[in-house]
Amino acid sequence: CFLTGAAKLVVVIAIFLLTFYVISQVFEIKMDANLGHIFAYLCCLSLKSYFPLKATKPPRYKCGISKACPEKHFAFKMSSGAANVVGPKICVEDNVLMSGVKNNVGRGINVALVNGKTGEPLDSKFFDMWGGDVAPFIEFLKSIQDGTIVLMATYDDGATKLNEEARKLIAELGSTSITNLGFRDNWVFCGGKGIKTKSPFEQHIKNNKDTNKYEGWPEVVEMEGCIPQKQD
């Protein structure tokens, strides 16, 4: 049956109340004003329970950011890793470039490259800065072409094997925190090759046993924003 017993009862009550109210108005039946308001309210309440208003979903923007980006900008959202358990996540223009679900993240510094003109992904790699070698990371940084958007996020430890050359190359991408990045710090950064100023997109939390959210690691850092499209 289309209507359940409870729904039928609601409809019957609504019809009765509505009919009574209409008749009282047509035949000018006098009744207390408060009673009339009560009848009208109950009528509407009964009808709303049977015909609930459709909830309006809030708008969703690319990568789940809080507001839409203007024209000629690319939406991005990223987060560092959580301790040594949950890997970082990097999303650009609704494309998840790196995440634990994609199984392409790892201990150290995770890097995603994006075309600064089109927003298309170019490459993604991670470099172990605890037990690995910094040399491949340096060569990778040197190979990045001008006009490339560079997004970086730490996981577990991203600083132990960093040397001055690697830090300098990252600073040239627009980072200001890379010189202070230490053991098990959490850090996310978005810059670009050939950038002329310091990037506004950077978050850094120090590893501090007195303030760490996780034992031995600080809380996750998250960041979102709109990257200006590279113009010729």
TrEMBL record:
Keyword annotations of the record: Disulfide bond, Lectin, Membrane, Secreted, Signal, Transmembrane, Transmembrane helix
Transmembrane feature ranges: 6-23
GO CC terms: extracellular region
Subcellular localization(s) per the UniProt record: Secreted
Keyword Chaperone set for record: no
One MF annotation (Gene Ontology) recorded for this entry: carbohydrate binding
Domain of life: Eukaryota
InterPro entries: FAM3, ILEI/PANDER_dom, ILEI_FAM3C
PROSITE patterns in the record: GG_LECTIN
Domain ILEI/PANDER: 107-194
Primary location: secreted
Record-linked Pfam families: ILEI
Entry similarity comment: Belongs to the FAM3 family.
Record protein name field: FAM3C protein
Organism (species): Onychorhynchus coronatus
Gene name, Swiss-Prot/TrEMBL: Fam3c
